[in-house]
Design brief:
The chain is of the alpha/beta class and 224 residues long. The chain is built from eight helices and eight strands.
Amino acid sequence: MNIAGLQKTSTVDFPGLLSAVLFTVGCNYNCFYCHNRYLLKGAPLLDSGAIFAFLEKRAAMLDGVVVSGGEPTLQNDLPEFFAYVKQLGYRTKLDTNGSSPKAIDRLLKESLLDYAALDYKAPFSKYEALCGQPGDDAQRTAELLLHSGIRFEMRTTMIPQITPDNLAEMARALPPLPSYVLQLYRPQPGDIRHTGSMQPYTPSEIAALADTIREWQPYVTVRG
């Protein structure tokens, strides 16, 4: 596992559990609004021995381990890492862009995953324009999770490019999700070349948009 970041304690990343969050290096998407862009390439790696020692020491105090990124499914040894974490008694959560349904399927079949958070970037037909990759694999991952029996959420960062019509299309494209989260977009340095004069949605505007899609996604919530 190529890990470049560690948040030792989090109360918000794994719903209902106190967790540690690990950040892997590398991603196959290139979303202009990525808030972890430093992880895409060249980030210095943390010492794996120190990470294992930390997880073993904190096993009695923490409930869960979250693996985020970057895109964790690019790590070939992700299943082995989750197996190790579960042996220590942790619950496991994966943050993913959904681009590797094969990797997700293996984690599910081997009962290595307790919770997943899948980024729902845009209408699947618009993924390539936004992320540089088609949306077919993300759609397959969503379908896997819908039939998996584990807890999961899907989440959309409300960048200005997502119009109300786009959001309605996204809401209709899938059956009711157990948790669908609309996230506030916080502009990063350099984003202006992609957003131009478009203004970010305000929290109240996102809340109003959530109401418009509740017909199709009754469990939609807003996260600041």
